[in-house]
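Hey Z.,

So I finally got round to the 4'-deoxy-4'-aminopyridoxal-5'-phosphate thing we talked about over coffee. Here's the setup:
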Amino acid sequence: MSRFADSRINAISPYVPGEQPRDRKYIKLNTNENPYYTSARAVAAVDGETLLNLKRYSDPESRELTAAIAARYGVDCAEVLVTNGSDEALAFAFYAYCRQGVCFPDVTYGFYEVIAKLFGCPCEKISLLEDFTLRPSDYFGKGKSIVIANPNAQTGIAADGGDIESIIANNRENIVIVDQAYADFSDWNAVPLIKKYDNLVTVNTFSKSRSLAGARVGYIIAPPQLIEDIKKVKDSFHPYNVNAVSSVLAKNAIEDEEYFKSTVEKIVKTRGFLVDGLKEYGFEVLPSSANFVLAKCAMGGERLYKLLKDRGILVRHFGDERIKDYIRITVGTDSETGKLLNVIKEILDDEKC
Ligand code: PMP
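And the result:
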């Protein structure tokens, strides 16, 4: 650090994204990306005119994309705000609502704590139960904002929709942010609740179920008054936040419902294949409603992560106390998953010798 850095920057431990190594070709199962290509319809929509017109700023309102998202969910355009990835959506929402205090589970997406510290939001971590599920009443009447990823990051566990609703209903004087990065792989979505609760902010992304992680597009769906608040933050920080190419990609991706459904269906099916295979090899696997699974094996998470990496397969290991014995594996294609399971079997057989 330089001597010029603000003391808050000095104190911060930034979020560490999953590695993107270039030293060899890996089977990449470490950052919960979609293994299937971006919709061909979306790619074809980026025409020469779109590219030539990059001389112009993008639409600060992202109107066409906003309308496409609103149509997909049956909500009003005034209930949608498009962002540069959902990390930006989270940052805007934290800035707008969490500076008096925020709470979230002890095992969840690590970015929440980082952004809270960056913005000076006092944060409280609420312990998940032994089996990594949440007890809704732990979040009742907190008197501060609440952030819940559903399905949860790192565990893949989805809370019951009724439980999430009870948390929103029992905190009517505070904002509840529901991060739905993985919701499309589950059987529940919080968006319809925005019509019923004026304290609900849903944060969503094109990075996972829409195969657009590299385009960096996210969106908030929330009651119009909350969108107004968050838009104020956005316009004070990054008015042209979504670039013109990504807007076209995302608009066409969200209109390509058939491709979306087919890839999500495949991922959910392969998830079952992965879970069964891991269980057969003696892993303890948390019940996942996401495009990844968190699994525990006897040899320990870090060791297995390293042995897999040596063999060209990248998964994610977190050093956090409660999940350090686990590895997180993104659901790839059937072929990638089959290779992973074969390599795990080889590793386990070697250990026995
Ligand atoms: N929320 C959760 C729970 C995530 O796991 C991620 C991806 N790391 C994000 C939000 C951010 O995703 P993006 O910025 O690509 O939309």
